[in-house]
Amino acid sequence: MVRLGFIVALIALIGILLSGLAAYRVHDQELAIDGIALARAIDVHASLVQDRLTERELLARVASGLFRAPSMVKANMLQPLRSAIYAFKTDFVVATWIARLRPNELTAAEAELKAAGFTNPQIRDFDDQPLDIKALVKPINVLMDVEPRNPETLSIPGRAFDRHSVVGPMLTKAMAEAKPVASDPIPLLRQNGPIGVALAAPVFQEGASEPAGFVTFSYELSSLMLTNDDTSLFAVALKDPRDSNDEFTANEQGVVTSRAVRQDGPLPSMVRTVTFGGRDWSLDYYAKSNATVRAQQTATIVAAIGLALTGIVCGLFGYVAYNNLRLSREIEVRIGFERRLTAVIDELNHRVKNILAVIQSIVTRTLRHGTDIDVARELLIGRIHAMSNVVTLLSESQWQGVKLKGLFESRSIPHADRIAVNGPDITVSARAAQSLSLLFFELASHSDEGLSLVGKHPHIVANWEVNGDAADAIFHFRWEEFNTSQATRRADSDFGLILLDRVAPEALGGTAKRYFTDVSYVYELTAPMDTVVDMTERDRTEQFSAPLRPVKK
To answer: Where are the domains of the chain?
Structure first.
């Protein structure tokens, strides 16, 4: 009996020890998994919020850059931009044109507002109080156009916002910094309207040192913060930039309100910072569930089960060992997946930002001051089409490169039927493909002018070859347009010259030259093959696309 009691006691002791160990491990693992899931969800949310803010700031920059009116004293300045601003599909509440008017322009401005059919065409203060125009000695900022036009917004034009406590400083800062500036959170449209943020982008006329006015877009905070997600692991709040003790939160209906942060209240689980309108905004994330309590409950259940099954300690031990091994592998796989997903997102953000930067450069240089709008529109559409085509080709190859001959397809290169392509079918890197696609479009788009020499269109030959071995291999590209001359060929644009002579050669780490012969126009590009192919980029992309495997024990 003593021996049996000893064995039973030993089994009970082993069961208690194993149950306690299992409960402790499960507690830690639950906390680790919940922490990883919460941190990943918060990082993804903050990244999405930043992307939305970047899109809306880009809309303001593009809209301000499209103004090309000789006079800013108009009540229909947004008319040419309506299709453009709606094409972005941003959820702005109201877009406005605020003109910076001199005192001698206010009478003409009132006449413009009256002719446009606005409810109150009188120039007045922001609160609809009368404004002594005769006493003004310097320019004021007057709202002259609004979009959308509806009964609620028709009464806004004619107001001067210089003395507004929020809009006034925003416009002053935008004028001083010459770039889009965001305001503090304010009620939109009316005093009790939805809380939002206004973004003002200054508009400069050619040769002017001060802005002629501002394009503004107003957005609700709830849509910018992405707050209406009932299934998320957290609640998000925006820290009030004017008072660190206040923050803005949204309910299930998306209504944003301000609340004071309680000193004895829960601290945010994490804080992330996003940039918008030249300012940093802090997002406080509060976990919706208590991970510690849930982990303790799970650990208690495991301990109870272990104590109840002390009679079958071997089975319990086997179960716990198997469960611990499975959970450990799942955690390792999740950690590896999260790390690789973060790297993939960072890589994708880097590539998207590079593409957006290229497109912004294309738009800025194509729509420069003094450019014929028809020619600029044709070139802009073609250049963006060339970028879109190379992105499509890269997506089809999972960003592992593009066949060089594929860049000469007729869907992206003008007059592809006149181009004789000859060269080895090499695969170039994503970065090289973007530069070469724009380069080929620029060359082809300027080859359609001449019925020269013998009255025929130019015949184009595109040749490339690779000389040398391994690390010393050199890529040679030659573009030659026969039956053309300097007098008949369309002159390269400023953007085209920069691309041909500097951007493309520098991107590939090589050199370029262009010249006319007696019967042709020639462009030559020479670059090392290791930059054209870029095996480092390809290896990194293949690593991202490889399937994830659990770590072998």
So the answer is: 2-61+291-344, 71-290, 350-538
